[in-house]
Amino acid sequence: MLQPRLCLRQVQHLRIFLPYSSRRTYAEAQAIDHTPPPPLTATSSLPEVNPYESSVRPEDTPEAPFQLRSYKPRTPGVRHLRRPVNDHLHRGRAYLPLTFPRKGQHIGGRNNSGQIRVRHRGNGAKRRIRMIDFHRNAPGKHTVERIEYDPGRSAHIALVHNNATKEKSYIVAAQGMRAGEQVESFRAGIPQQLLDSLGGSTDAGMIAAKTAWRGNCLPLHLIPTGTLVHNVGLRKGGKAQLCRSAGTFAMVIGTQQNEAERESEGIVGSVEGEEGGERQERRGKKDLYVEVRLKSGEVRRIHRDACATIGTASNSNYNRRQLGKAGRSRWLGIRPTVRGVAMNASDHPHGGGRGKSKGNVQPVSIWGQLTKGGYKTRKKRNINRFVVTERPRSQKSASKAKKKEKKNKN
């Protein structure tokens, strides 16, 4: 049996935190009032309660120091095993109606004719694919039942149910989300009950204070500037396509105008005459997109009605784990990667010969293409018009560009 040991990775001294990690806690007796509530009579009726008037924003719990769980080295494969501490995950099976078995030739990286199209894939443990709701079109409050591990992705998932219809679905869990929280999607618009609780005000700041909570799904134009989001869509009415991996996020950095300015300029609202309609359409194109900075550094324009979820994708310490042995990679369906020099001449251009020699040729792939920047695939004319600022490239290419500029000036 594996005996876990906590390995605290942080700048401060370990002696400050180790006593707290091993301290035991015991249940304390509390006085409980067992008097039953008064029964409801035939004349009594439950008053209508606006759920948004008494809604309390979930507390942003302070993140604990980064911890990795190590194990007593009873075997060589456990000696270097490191795992993030995720004690809040559900330990049972998944919700089977929202899963289906993972079968077919694609598991081994093969196409419908049996040819290998993706190398280094195959075998692995049996899995069931979880059907994730990336659209979040269902309105109303949803309750988080539990947080689960998903073998098909790096981030954790949350099983939620609609409070009105009791329909269950899977969503990508936000960082810090726990069971019992309330999440909601506002893609269909702001509910009338929420507007009534605000006194009929349509101020963007007041609406954001009630809607921009962790795990809520909103259109991009309703999210305040500077908010971290994940599960970002690319088109109106589409599903989430960006920032879905563990620990990824994007930042809303620019909305052109707010609703009040657009109404004052005549961009929103009914305008009489055909000329007014043309003016409305022409000015609306300028305010149709929201600028979002991705984690790679790229600034991109996305439709204002595309979806985004507040917060960061869960399991942010996923990249710091250590598998400990080669067998765990095989359990995940990852096959070994063999060097070309170690192959035969019939299997790779670098193969054959005596000793560690690749035959005095340029480094190439198994298909004969240059691998060290000699084979360009990016077309200069294929420019994405939605990219405002490209992601920063390597320093080597930047230094080469500077040298070319100096030569051209001289």
Beta-strand percentage range: 15-25%
Fraction of residues in H or I helices: 10-25%
Derived from helix and strand composition plus strand pairing, the structural class reads alpha+beta
Spatial shape:
globular
Give the termini separation.
71 Å
Q: Helices and strands, in N-to-C order?
A: EHEHEEEEEEEHHEEEEEHHEEEHEH
Description:
With 410 residues, the chain is of the alpha+beta class. The strands form 5 sheets. It has a 7-stranded antiparallel beta sheet with strand order 10-17-11-14-15-16-18, with no helix packed on it. Strand 15 (289-293) and strand 16 form a beta hairpin. It is built from 8 helices and 18 strands. Mean pLDDT is 80; it is low at 8-34, 40-46 and 258-283. It is globular and about 80 Å long.
